[in-house]
């Protein structure tokens, strides 16, 4: 038996080596593509081709009996690496010195081995084909001084986090020092509670970490009874402290990599307040780099306005009237000047573009201080995002909208998709998130056809047959994990005003059930959160009453309201009101349609969905379930996996 296993493993080793050979061969071809683009001036990316390739590879994977999601995820990383490599190749060809075939790069980071900043440096410079050396320093000032003093080529400086916000010290240092930003990187941060082997959560009495790490995990840390949190220099250095002191009552917030590196144990994983926890880093150098105009770039700057009414508005207007999209605006007290502020601004644009140069020239006339921090390849703009496999309902004449809307629709962004944009979106999921395993199955189906959003209601009315009221708050704990695993934004419903804030932490879209359309206490709370709201029409509601409910949400500040036509009452049954969709095209809110509420599965869903899209709907909601006959939630109908895939690919995609 041992010899047989050894033989099987040898075959696996041979296959792995062939995979490596294929990747090396692919990389050589990518280099040829980069050489051609450098000399020909052709565009760096063909996003449609990337999307088509991911879709095609997923289909080929299924034919071979492979997991479509797994294969598309692998090739997603391969394509993203290819794009990054080509960007680096264009940059070197545009003036950045290579210093030989393999350039040696020294990057300074704050902390010790295993720190997130070190991981960000490896992620950023890895695709550039350099010999990377990283050096840890005790402070942000230390890493920048290392660059200024030529002890390092670059510094990896964290500037903001999606949970804790901007890191003010980093921006203050950039404002003072004579350095330039030449890149950015975004790293997903997955915090763990790390302790000595054999220790338990119950005995932890003190937790160390960088202040940002403690802030990002404050909710979890508050559940550790009697535990004190103490700020320390760095996440990885906190792990070293716990290891060296050998006190089982001490723990650290750090990465799993740091725990492994210093031979400690992970006591709890993924403990950040927000599951989507990302840190943005700026790559800082001594001299600027000129980037090819084919590379999507951002420009960062600091300015102070003249002390006059409307001064900030006049400054921002210089960017707006030249079509430069603002991605960040933040104010900080101006050192040494009471009640005056410095403004930190990021916008999409390359310093070599004439409109950017003109904007900065005009901006100089309206500011008392102006410093350009740098222009660099973007990692956070839509244009720079890695390609996804082709989305369902995309660009087919069979479902194209008719005449242009008489009123411009106010689009709503959800993940990488736009509801109310150029193409219809697809939202799919079960009528209720009955359990994590069931939802994972539905999520795989939705991802497989290219759905934009996973729908997973957690709360059902108490009148549901059998008394089932959904998973409730327990569902909120797992729906985000399921969506995140597949890269799908999640939409869930909320019926209790007290649970709006909790649901908003998990879901990218909040849904108002049809029977809650007139629950104005609920609508008020939804108006106070920064989450798009899908407002279903009550079966007996007039269009005027429906729009009044939408206006009520918007009146409290949240203008991201999406209407959903899910069936009006008629002849004793609910019927989708296609005419209402057409009539509402003269108002600015996006409209979705849910044919599953008013039609049996199979023959009717395709024609009805196409009719809704032709009438002006900006997307469809489809109900799916592993076993529609055993659904615990009320729904007129649901599709099983094969029927759902056939409907989307054959009827809705033509």
Kindly describe this structure.
With 654 residues, this protein is of the alpha/beta class. It folds into 4 domains: 20-93, Up-down Bundle (Chorismate Mutase Domain, subunit A), CATH 1.20.59.10; 192-269, 3-Layer(aba) Sandwich (D-Maltodextrin-Binding Protein, domain 2); 292-384, Alpha-Beta Plaits, CATH 3.30.70.260; 414-652, Aldolase class I (TIM Barrel, Alpha-Beta Barrel), CATH 3.20.20.70. The chain is 37% helix and 22% strand. It contains 20 helices and 27 strands. The strands form 6 sheets. It has an 8-stranded parallel β-sheet with strand order 26-23-22-21-20-19-18-27. Strands 1, 2, 3, 4, 5 and 11 form a 6-stranded mixed β-sheet that branches. A 5-stranded mixed β-sheet has the order 8-7-9-6-10. Helix 11 packs antiparallel against helix 12. The protein starts with a helix and ends with a helix. The relative contact order is 0.08.
In a nutshell, what does this entry contain?
The protein is an alpha/beta fold.
- Cα Rg: 27 Å
Structural class, judged by helices and strands?
A: alpha/beta
Sheet with the most strands, sense and barrel status: 8 strands, parallel
Assign the CATH superfamily of the largest domain: Aldolase class I
The count of DSSP E runs of length 2 or more, i.e. the number of strands, is 27
How many DSSP H or I helices?
A: 20
Please name the CATH architecture of the largest domain. Alpha-Beta Barrel
Predict the CATH topology of the largest domain.
TIM Barrel
Low-confidence stretches: 95-99, 394-406
* Helix content class: 25-40%
